[in-house]
Amino acid sequence: MLKVKTPKTAKARREVEKRAPKLVENRKKTLILQGTKTSNVLNAVLTEIHHLKKESSIRYTRKNENIRPFESGGETSLEFFSLKTDCSLFVFGSHAKKRPHNLVIGRTYDHHIYDLVEVGVENFKTMESFSYEKKLAPRVGSKPFFAFIGEGFQNVEELKHLKEVLLDLFRGEVVENLNLAGVDRVYVCTAVSSTRVFFTHCALRLKKSGTVVPRMELVEVGPSMDFVVRRHRLPNDGLRKEAMKTVTEQPKKKVKNVSGDVIQGKIGKIYIPDQQVGDMALSHKAKGLKRERREAKANNEANEHGSKKKKADSE
């Protein structure tokens, strides 16, 4: 049995919590690595994918003998690298006689293999083979559009799975608000048949249209390639249900002394401290105070006059 190590310090505990599954996911990173034998075409494909995901990808250039997706026991090293690099996506390249220019794209959940899609690469063209104005080159980290053309992405199970994986691989960070001026590229995926998909990367060129909305043109900037779907493995229902949990509504922060009522609506409580009226400093210009002083002065004068009259009568 494998020994489970528990964190002993607060810093290590925080790092483990960062890598744990979350309802609100953080930015996904991609691990790009290769098998024992690869081809020049496949090395170029892995380099181009790393360039497209430069800010959120890790590239391993060493050969890995123990990684064999779709085989029992051949995914342990892949899960170890996923845990080591904290990557939830991976792209693995290998080359063999039966499966030339083979590319395996997969996802992990809690650093265990979630699903796999295996495709073959054909008719590959690099970015350098396309000629275009350099100012049209997409900026690193920009948010892309996706265009899936063909009925196969809705009807064929393999293409539906490939669509999910490609969206997860190239969509970047999930954002709530988006500035359309910063959207400068699009990924176009065309389902030629039930097993073949044409993949290309284009830049968006804005031109005048005579209206407020500009006219868009696509300029192919590369890379482009054909994906031939070979094998795929879907997750089981229990794992999919656990991994697809989402937060429906963010919990609202409780406001003190405020409650709601169906009839009266929003009700609030106001707490007023006890007023010490006897300790309050009164102004000398108060009208009520002046009247009291006049009455007191008049009473004093009346009392003095009465006492003098009594004294005179007694004499």
Question: How does this model look, in words?
Answer:
This protein has 315 residues and is α/β, with parallel strands linked by helices. The protein has a domain at 27-236: Rossmann fold, CATH 3.40.50.10480. It is built from 7 helices and 11 strands. It has helices at residues 10-19, 40-52, 76-85, 152-155, 157-170, 237-243, 287-314, and strands at residues 30-34, 57-63, 89-94, 102-109, 112-125, 145-149, 185-191, 196-207, 215-233, 258-261, 265-268. Strands 2-1-3-4-5-9-8-7-6 form a 9-stranded mixed sheet, with helices on both faces. It has a two-stranded antiparallel ribbon with strand order 10-11. Helix 2 links the parallel strand 1 and strand 2. It is elongated, with a radius of gyration of 38 Å. It is found in: Nucleus, Nucleolus. InterPro entries: Brix (IPR007109), Rpf2 (IPR039770). Residues 292-315 have a biased composition (Basic and acidic residues).
